[in-house]
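Final report, Chapter 2: Outcomes

The project's central promise was a pipeline that accepts a single protein chain and returns its three-dimensional structure in a standardized token representation, suitable for archiving and comparison. That pipeline is now operational. To close this chapter, we reproduce one record exactly as it appears in the project archive, with the input sequence first and the structure output second.
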Amino acid sequence: MKKEPVLAMILVGNDPASSIYVRRKGAFCEEVGIGSKTLKFPVSISEKKLLEAINGFNRDKKITAIMVQLPLPRHINKIKIIESIDPKKDADCLHPENYGKFAQADESYSIIAPATPLGIIKLLEEYKVKIEGKRAVVVGRSNIVGKPAAQFLLNRGATVTVCHRHTKNLASHTREADILVVAAGKKNLIKADMVKKGVVVVDVGVNRVGKKIFGDVDFANVSKKASFITPVPGGVGPTTIAMLLWNTVKLAEK
């Protein structure tokens, strides 16, 4: 008998964005019939106590998937926390065992994949954006978005350039992009004069200014040149949660 999917979420601290994400993930779980459990801890929690909480979920046979909301406080070793999650319950595909399998030439080596980049690919496929033979530029090199997004695009035949904060003359690269994925964490980093007409833009940035949320792309002006562009909020965010739940179901089936 297959296990019912149950996602366990751990939230440390009171970061408004992280709190909203975890709450939305819980609501999505309820909407689609996936069980969920959330543990919230103060920002002062010790690394030892956090590891104990994760190990409790590892041992709990009813829990089929685990995720720790990032970022974590500076006094906690993020790598140590990620490595403590049972690879068979790693909903975010961040554990080295799962990420390593994903990073092989064909992502089918792993039954799950990093949620945000998987959501990006699903969006491109849904809108029938051709990837093979296209020039793709990824701005950002994180293990959560940038690197796996580049891997996905490479696997589908794109020629990929990865840019980051040390890249000189960023615009010279972004202007060449047929597909532009931006995950840099800087409000309105990409301006209209940095893209070519017809570009497909995926904005992963979430930048809070007061009560407003902005992406990494100047949406109002870049959208006039783009053939497709994701809004912030309401674009990549919901697809990320959907793919996290997809991973949760896949782990339960496994």
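Archive annotation: The chain has two domains: 6-89, 115-237.
This record, like all others produced under the grant, will remain available to the consortium after the project formally closes.
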